[in-house]
Amino acid sequence: MNPLQMVDLKSQYQRIKPQIDNAIQGVIDSCQFVKGAEVKTFEQELAQYLGVQHAIACGNGTDALQVALMALGLKPGDEVITTDFTFIATVEVIALLGLKPVLVDVDMATFNIDVEKVEKSITPRTKAIVPVHLFGQCANMEPLLKLAEKYGLYVVEDTAQGLGAEYRFSDGTVRKAGTIGTIGCTSFFPSKNLGCYGDGGALFTNDDQLAEQIRCLTNHGMKVRYHHDMIGVNSRLDTIQAAILRVKLPHLDEYNRARLAAAEKYNAALSDIDGLETPVTSAFTTHIFHQYTLKVKNGQRDALKKHLDEQGIPNMVYYPIPLHRQKAFEPYMTENDSFPVSETICGEVLSLPMHTELDDEQIERITAAVKSFFER
After folding, report:
1. In whole angstroms, what is the distance from residue 297 CA to residue 295 CA?
2. Distance between CA atoms of residues 253 and 351, nearest Å
């Protein structure tokens, strides 16, 4: 049996090793390590896959979020609403730009942003909403878009964990995550469903003017070499990473199907255990299972985690502390803020191994270890 890992990148690489090695060698032979032809080609192929007009590659997913907010021309003090239960990068960039992060609680079933609480948090200073497609399924975008239209707000999608997921509107229209709002952002960190072998990210939009602004911002504010039209950043996808992503992109749907198949096997084995809740998928979205995250009830999460550690079963807590209790964000909190759902789930969530290479034997070993805890 292959050793258990949270993410098995090595086995995935072995399956496509000749193509990956050839792609890397091709870039080395060309010596076009920055802004090589592979970058533009990857952007075009990614845009075609997503069904969006523009895909602009950048250095990482955090940069993508930062550049998106910069491109919208938000001013210091403007408020940006986002979720309390996510990785820090989503909120970090808001604060870095001098904007005010306004955190709202999440839906207990899906971990995604609670749309009703979003509307209650809108003020005259609100300029944007940043929903996160957490753990692999879409936030409820249709009502968020209606709120954005009602109040004149931008919507920036954090699609770092949701690339390839699909959202179904009430009229039957289907759009891929990241292509629904004003701008979509993603990460190509190695563990993502579409991951490179280093850092990488991208932004998506159907707005030609915004796309031009984003390209300029990621290149030191230049449209013409040495002519700096605005204050920008240096955020470029390396050519080697683009070449790797070009090999992996045609496999993305296959990878996502493999994750779904593994999740369904987990569900079949674990869904009837008292004190354990398996992931819920909303009716309006597909789920690509960037993470397979259980909710462990009755205060038993840490004990189950210890049990799995002792059994040699990889597991992780995403995320142990809600953002409103992080020291970095204390200046933005008030005594009236309330996040009961985030507080609860941070004490319950536990993620099991999830990747494209999980086989039946591994899943059986993992689920047997979980069951043995509850059978004691």
Report:
1. 6
2. 22
In the chain, what are the domain boundaries? Answer: 9-250, 251-374
100, 124 Cβ separation under 8 angstroms: no
Report the candidate in 129, 97, 103, 81 with the shortest Cα–Cα distance to residue 324: 103
**What confidence tens digit (pLDDT) does each residue in 77-99 have?**
999 999 999 999 999 999 999 99
> Which residues is 204 bridged to in the sheet?
55, 184
Residue 347 pLDDT: 98
> Given a cut of 90, is residue 226 above it in pLDDT?
no
Q: Give the separation between CA 322 and CA 342, rounded to whole angstroms.
A: 6
Nearest to 121 by CA among 147, 160, 149: 147
Compute φ and ψ for 166, nearest 5 degrees.
-120, 140
pLDDT at 376 over 90: no
Condensed to tens digits (0 to 9), the pLDDT of residues 152-173 reads 999 999 999 999 999 999 999 9
Please tell me the class of the 9-250 domain. Answer: alpha beta
Q: Environment class of residue 266 by beta-carbon count within 10 Å: exposed (0-12), middle (13-18) or buried (19+)?
A: buried
Q: Are the C-beta atoms of 118 and 260 separated by less than 8 Å?
A: no
The fold of the 251-374 domain, in CATH, is Aspartate Aminotransferase, domain 1 (3.90.1150)
* CA-based nearest residue to 153, from 89, 74, 97: 74
Are β-strands 174-176 and 227-228 bridged in parallel, bridged antiparallel, or unpaired?
unpaired
